Amino acid sequence: MQVNLSRAAANGLDADAVVIVEWENGKGLADKLPAIYDSGEVTGEFLQFTLLHGVSGFAAHRVLLAGAGKREKFDAPGLAKLAGAAVRFLKGKGVKNVVFALEDGLNGAEHVEAVARGVLLGAWEPDRLKSKKEPKTSEVESVVLAAENADPTLDAAIERGRVLGEAANLARDISVEPPNVLNPSAMAERARAMAEASGLEFEVLDQNRMRQLGMGALLGVAQGSAEPPVLMVIRYKPAGASGSTHLGLVGKGVTFDTGGISIKPAEGMEKMKYDMAGGAAVIGAMQAIARLKPPIAVTGFVPAVENMPGGKAQRPGDIVQSLSGKTVEILNTDAEGRLILADAISYAKQLGCTHLVDAATLTGAIVVALGHVSTGVFTNDDQLAERWMHASKQAGEKMWPMPVDDEYMEQLKTVYADIQNIGGRWGGACTAAMFLKEFAGETPWIHLDIAGTAWLDDAKPWMAKGPTGLPVASFVTLALNWK
Ligand code: BES
Ligand code: MN
Ligand code: ZN
């Protein structure tokens, strides 16, 4: 889909449809359309859409009155949703070209970025493998943002929106693939293709290399599957890097999580194909980072495995030695994400990362705690956390701080090894984070538990069901904001 900026007035631009923002009780076009406003049909309530044909004074064939709610409460994330929902509303109606009118007050850089990103996220569908598309869906091919008084900075803003939208959609393309197609090696090929097209350095550590290095925690998870594990390393180095900051982004890439020998119940198990959404987000973020060029070095790490209960699978009771040297007693083979992340985090530290952010669909417990609204944020460093909360707010991705107090460590103690991989029934998201914290050590680190936010069980007006692409935008914004 093409997304472009125009400095012409929206009503003069020819298109299949022009989107006009309608504020609550605003009656924006009342002089042109008295009857429809008199009927009370158009209230301007958020996401209320009214489609009209042949409105005088507009070159476009249709006018879509798009309810934006109360003007005082409206912000850039709301605008992104409105733009995405407008595209989803129009695409079933044979509309191919859309003009989105940005009036004064809605034509700042953050607005332009939000609309560009929102329309790209809204247009995405999870139907790649459907032979016949839904009969009524037509693709929207082009969106023009009409901002009459647009200042020159808006060209950079629309590019940012495009890059972030396309990067999140790449993460969604990878996450939505079925687990028979997207095994660890296939995931690495997707990352390689992205890296080659983006001019990033790319490397894969295979099973032999992992054995040489001593990544016993990661290898233990992989051993029950016929598919070999991989650890992807994707490097971005800016030309004139300022300072010595080296950010490491680490994403859980479990291409399917059966639970292993501690096998999961059958119902809903198919959803465990999205257990690689953190890894997909790292791949998407690295694509955007290559295009937007933040001032710091960033390396992406994606450990990818399939957690299966094969004849060689690890057992509850096994003790493995991680890359850090620490021994881990496996009490539940379904707590596999923390094991592969432990070795990836240690490896990121070995490669010189000074700051780490990991994203993982790590626990069902975080879904109990925060539902499908906010991502759980765990950290050992207040300064990094502050940067993170600021970046994620700017990116419109909701995050909520969670505790990693020392008391939780009690739940991970065992007499047989240095640490055990589960912490019992209570505070499951916190003990999982506490496990990772042991491996992050003194390195400033953030852990994001995205189990509740990486996937939509039902479509939203602004987004199809399936993968959300979160937290690609926050990752990229964190790197761009670094000074
Ligand atoms: N991938 C799951 C977590 C998950 C659950 C993601 C629901 C998305 C939706 C993870 O590997 C897992 O199985 N966690 C266990 C940990 C437990 C065994 C300590 C869980 O949350 O039940
Ligand atoms: Mn699991
Ligand atoms: Zn898992």
How many beta-strand runs?
20
The residue fraction in helices comes out at 25-40%
Question: Could you tell me the mean pLDDT?
Answer: 97
Distance between the terminal alpha carbons, to the nearest Å? 33 Å
Helix-strand category? alpha/beta
Radius of gyration: 24 Å
Q: Give the bound compounds.
A: ligand BES, manganese (II) ion, zinc ion
Instruction: Outline the low-pLDDT stretches.
Output: none
User: Main beta sheet, described?
Assistant: 9 strands, mixed
**Strand residue percentage:** 15-25%
Task: Supply the number of helical segments.
Answer: 13
The shape is elongated
Spell out the blueprint of helices and strands:
Blueprint: E1 2-6, E2 17-23, H1 34-38, E3 49-53, E4 62-69, H2 76-91, E5 97-101, H3 109-123, E6 142-146, H4 154-176, H5 184-198, E7 201-205, H6 207-213, H7 216-222, E8 230-236, E9 246-251, E10 253-257, H8 277-292, E11 297-307, E12 319-321, E13 327-329, H9 337-350, E14 355-360, H10 364-370, E15 375-379, H11 382-395, E16 399-401, E17 419-420, H12 428-440, E18 445-449, E19 455-456, E20 466-467, H13 472-481
Parallel strand pairs: 1-6, 2-4, 2-5, 5-6, 9-11, 9-14, 10-11, 13-17, 14-18, 15-16
Antiparallel strand pairs: 3-4, 7-8, 8-11, 12-13, 15-18, 19-20
Helix pairs in contact: 2-3, 3-4, 4-8, 5-8, 7-9, 8-13, 9-12, 11-13
Bound molecules: ligand BES, manganese (II) ion and zinc ion (ZN).
